[in-house]
Amino acid sequence: MAEQSGVPHSNGPDLSGKVALVTGASRGIGEATARHLAACGASVVLAARSTGDIERIAAEIGDKAAAIACDVAAFDKVADAVSHAVQRFGGLDILVNNAGVVDPVARIGESDPDAWGRAVDINLKGVYHGIRAAIPAMRQRGGGVIINISSGAATSVLEGWSHYCATKAAVLMLTRAVHLEHAGENIRCVGLSPGTVATDMQKVIKASGVNPVSKLEWSDHIPPEWPARAIGFLCTAAGRSYDGGDMSLRSADARRAVGLPVPD
Ligand code: NAP
Ranges for the Ketoreductase domain (predicted)? Predict the structure, then answer.
């Protein structure tokens, strides 16, 4: 599939020789990211629970891609995905902690404790699992970059999203913690807050009808290829100024840095 970003196509950064692992690569931002990183020359391991989808996407990308079934809530599955990248492609340079859920949307007083905890297992522990599994492999390469997909919900509260806001806020703190502890060994960590993106997650949000995000028009959302391009940018030295925090694609400066259209 060609990139369909609505942005004039320009080549992304040269990531030849790099190996990337993308969680939640079966659709949406993760799928677009896997395709973009591969188009930039990286070898890519696609991880998600929907095995048929990641196998199909990996086959479409070609020899430089591999698929591995992975529930990020389980540390051993994430560690297996990192090992797969190392065995298949020789190491790990880039980890994109993208897997995430927003459902079930519910006010705290009506929320289901098990479902709330499941969101923590995926959105927060899943990111920790990726970081914890990747660091030893990145040390072997002399460094690497970890990109955590953040959200405006990391810093703004929204009705019905307590699980999502709390986990994204915690992920931002993880980004800062990895930067504090591992930047000295050339392991970079940066968050990407993409704004609203036209993916299945926005269909779930729309169906909930709960807060102002659910009232947005589909045309308000950016295509998933835009955050994918931002992730490619963050893999380069030019992205270093965002290390230890979130780059927001709502920012005109960030859009310009990536080469995306600037918001009005
Ligand atoms: P999406 O289309 O719903 O895709 C979510 C991806 O996460 C799927 O590939 C899904 O794969 C994977 N996933 C969910 N649970 C998983 C688990 N337990 N283990 C492994 N993979 C899992 O959503 P999206 O919009 O692309 O979201 C991607 C990321 O961007 C999320 O972190 C989300 O919070 C963030 N984000 C999205 C928006 C937006 O407007 N869309 C805005 C800000 C931030 P399987 O179901 O196959 O496992």
Answer: 18-164
User: Between 3.40.50.720, 3.30.300.350, 3.90.1150.10, 3.30.2310.20, what CATH number should domain 19-254 receive?
Assistant: 3.40.50.720
User: Which pLDDT tens digit goes with each residue over 150-166?
Assistant: 999 999 999 999 999 99
At 79-110, the pLDDT tens digits run 999 999 999 999 999 999 999 999 999 999 99
Determine if ligand 1 sits within 6 Å of the CB of residue 227.
Answer: no
Distance 18 CA to ligand 1 centre (A): 23
Asked if residues 228 and 201 have their Cβ atoms less than 8 Å apart, the reply is no
pLDDT of residue 11 exceeding 90:
no
Sheet with 94-97: strands ordered across: 65-69, 43-48, 19-23, 94-97, 144-149, 187-193, 246-248
HSE (side-chain half, CA atoms, 13 Å) at 137: 28
Whether the model clears a pTM of 0.90, i.e. scores above it, the answer is yes
Q: Which residues contact 96 (CB under 8 A, 6 or more apart)?
A: 20, 21, 22, 23, 30, 33, 37, 147, 149, 231
